[in-house]
Amino acid sequence: MIPEKLNYADILCLLKSDGSRAQQLFDSADSVRSRTKGNTVNVRAIIEFSNRCRRNCAYCGLNCGNTSLPRYAMEPEEIIETAVEGYGAGYKTVVLQSGEDPYYTVDMLCHIVKSIKEKTEMAITLSCGEMSEEDFALIRKSGCDRYLLKHETSDADLYSRLHPGYSLTDRIECLRTLKRLGFETGGGFMIGLPGQSLDTIVNDLLLIASIPCDMAGIGPFIPHPETELRSASPGDVFLTRKAVAIARLLLPDANLPATTSLAVRDKEERNKIFSGGANVIMKKITPPRYRELYEIYPANHGRIKSVAEEREEINRLLTSLGREYD
User: Which residues contact 64 (CB under 8 A, 6 or more apart)?
Assistant: First the structure.
């Protein structure tokens, strides 16, 4: 078994591993996951409530420079109603995700969180970008349990190129602020960004361990045709699996999802990640009329079923993989 105490050189070696050594990594991560999380996969509902964003990130289809994308913003009551529907279908956690949309004031976000708490027993994760410490504190006070804010890359120069006008230092400070305010703090990064090296990924992993993050979303980069990285190659799914497994060793108690981007790249690889450290899966319950418009990366949504039908589908998948669900 691979030890949980890993240094820089250990992590770099594991990222390069193949064959039996990589399998040893996956088995070790699975053993830690079994010890700390049991055999249950937590199923989270996601509501993508706005595809409007003030940022112009080089990899994201929601970037403000994408003029071909019809924009939408759900009204607070519709967000609340959708969350209640998800609760009725068996979801115990809802992730409210959007671009950085100035339409939603902190008062509106607090109202949404309080209303969902009044109508359900759901845990609430918010993911709508950087805010001031004062605003984060108000959202926490309103009852929000978790906040997801991926750093995407630990390379400061690469971060600045990918996020024009913004800095990695500010991003990391936001993560530390969230942790200090008592949020279950979610971070994460992409595998395969143009300009990324294995050393970058080592630093990504050490960064989420240093916060320390309570959740970490690690998925492959997928190029979007309406971004400047449209011609880049997608991230490697095997390397993604290894990064998730290492994250489990570094953060034994963290919630580690099988990301939606991994499922887009390769559903079989997504399923394998549950035996390599992952214990969470996300399912979109965004109303059908908006779902295809929330396109950070291209995805085939297929036939959109009811919230209850899609939840049953996830339950059957996890049962077939020998896992329980919550």
Answer: 53, 54, 55, 56
